[in-house]
Design brief:
This protein is an alpha+beta fold. The chain has helices at 11-16, 28-50, 53-62, 101-104, 127-138, 155-166, 182-190, 195-206, 209-222, 244-256, 258-264, 330-346, 434-439; strands spanning 69-72, 92-98, 113-115, 121-122, 150-152, 179-181, 241-242, 268-271, 275-278, 289-295, 302-310, 318-327, 348-354, 359-364, 370-375, 379-384, 390-395, 406-414, 417-426. Strands 1-14-15-19-18-17 form a six-stranded antiparallel sheet, with no helix packed on it. Strands 3-2-12-11-10 form a five-stranded antiparallel sheet, sandwiched between helices. Strand 11 (302-310) and strand 12 form a beta hairpin. Helix 5 (127-138) packs parallel to helix 8, helix 5 crosses helix 9 (209-222) and helix 8 packs across helix 9. Mean pLDDT is 88; it is low at 1-26.
């Protein structure tokens, strides 16, 4: 047994010391000497095992150490607020949306959302859309710029002006002997909703009102509008009826016709003997509305069949077809339609999913050095309503363990959209000190 230097406690003395003796019974200087002696004893053992002190020091200072321990936790993300679509509630309404199927899902039967009953109601002047489509089916125009054949109005046509005036219908001048192209006559029927033009044009196209009604019924059946009934061309008769879902289908057919689509989107125009006419659809250009046709038979029967191009922040605007039936006034219908479109627009939003510096992991070492793994930049994702947001994180082993080193990515997915942000090291992993290496041989490789 090696004898300890003078003043140090030997191993025998330590082994045999009274267990009840307190560390406080040993003066501080003796405690420090005891620690140094314990270190010397440990080094002596290592020298015996490894070799000379110089060899041990060289080995300790150069031996590999374990890589830092990496722990990580994939972050979570909360879905956005649920959309609340404000459809017309006083009567009946329906809406169809295309261009957002990956967000909203496909329309069921051409209808995305409805309110009220899908029962038959008077169409009023929306009937004139059917009239125009039936006439163009028999007398097609070659695109929106083709004016078509010329109509010459006789005295009987002019007399209709007074007849419809007495009935309180919307009318437009039709002087005896005046002429108008078929396209402009259809525009006069649709833009100011002139009922006298609806009768004159439909009679001209088919020879009589009976022939026209027969053609209209065949056209409705051929286009699957089985719950739509037309008994005359203007909509003044309450027996001209349809349902919200049938009218959505009618609106899509009308919007696909270039002649009618252009006419329905025109706020006003000057048309021969009819003079300057103004569109009854006062919402044109508001909330993205591009058409189609109004109709009313007085309080409680105000209707609007409309189309809209809705910019919601997606790659392309959404194409919307909608209908609201049974309003107490034109203002009530207009207000409800704008609210519907605005609520649809607001349903699409950008949801923040990460803030720069958000910790997603850590790196720690046996020698006490540590660093954080953080999301390096703010991130957000565009989504619809409360679509769930999924999160994945992929990380790789650090190479330098230096501040700013990219060690992975976080990816958020909501519907068709994804967002990504890099994961980096914040702080640095310092190497172990020489003293730590010399005093922790069991941690060395």
């Amino acid at each position: 047994m090696t004898t300890p230097p003078d003043g140090l406690v030997g191993l025998d003395e330590l082994w045999n010391r009274d267990p009840a003796a307190s560390e406080h019974d040993i003066d501080p200087q003796r405690r420090r000497r005891r620690r140094r002696w314990g270190l010397v004893a440990a080094l002596t053992v290592l020298v015996i095992v490894i070799g000379t002190p110089t060899a041990y020091v060289g080995w300790a200072l150069n031996a590999p150490v374990a890589s830092p321990t990496v722990t990580s936790q994939t972050p979570t993300a909360s879905a956005g607020s649920a959309a609340a679509i404000q459809l017309f509630r006083d009567g009946a309404a329906a809406i169809s949306v295309s261009g957002a199927e990956e967000y909203l899902g496909p329309d069921t039967g051409g209808v995305w959302l409805t309110s009220g009953m899908d029962d038959v109601r008077p169409m009023a002047s929306i009937s004139k859309l059917v009239t125009a489509l039936v006439v163009l089916d028999a007398w097609p125009l070659d695109g929106a710029d083709d004016v078509g054949p010329t109509l010459t109005f006789d005295e009987a046509d002019n007399d209709l002006y007074d007849e419809y005036y007495v009935r309180g219908a919307t009318i437009a001048a039709m002087p005896t002997g005046s002429e108008m192209s078929l396209r402009d006559a259809l525009a006069t029927m649709l833009i100011p909703s002139a009922s006298n033009y609806a009768e004159v044009v439909s009679t001209w196209a088919f020879g009589s009102q009976g022939a026209f009604v027969g053609a209209a019924r065949r056209w409705l059946a051929a286009n699957g509008l089985d719950r739509t009934t037309l008994v005359e061309p203007t909509g003044l008769d309450r027996r001209n009826t349809s349902t919200p879902t049938d009218l959505l289908a009618l609106g899509k057919i009308a919007a696909a016709n270039p002649v009618i689509a252009r006419i329905a989107a025109t706020p006003s125009m000057t048309l021969g003997g009819a003079g300057t006419v103004h569109n009854t659809n006062g919402l044109l250009g508001t909330a993205g509305i591009t058409g189609l046709k109004t109709g009313n038979l007085g309080e409680g029967t105000y209707n609007l069949l409309y189309t809209a191009s809705l910019d919601v922040g997606a790659a392309a605007p959404l194409s919307v077809t909608g209908v609201a039936l049974g309003g107490y006034s034109s203002a009530a219908i207009n207000e409800s339609v704008v609210a519907t479109l605005e609520s649809l627009r607001k349903g699409f939003h950008t949801v923040p999913v990460a803030t720069a510096g958000e910790q997603v992991g850590s790196l720690t070492t046996a020698w006490g050095s540590s660093a954080r793994m953080v999301i390096a930049e703010d991130a957000a994702i565009f989504t619809w309503s409360d679509t769930p947001i999924t999160v994945t994180m992929d990380t790789t082993a650090p190479v330098t363990y230096e501040d700013g080193e990219v060690v992975g990515t976080v990816t958020w997915t909501a519907g068709p959209q994804t967002a990504t942000a890099p994961v980096t090291i914040q702080g640095e992993i310092d190497p172990p000190s020489e003293w730590w290496r010399l005093t922790h041989p069991d941690q060395l490789g």
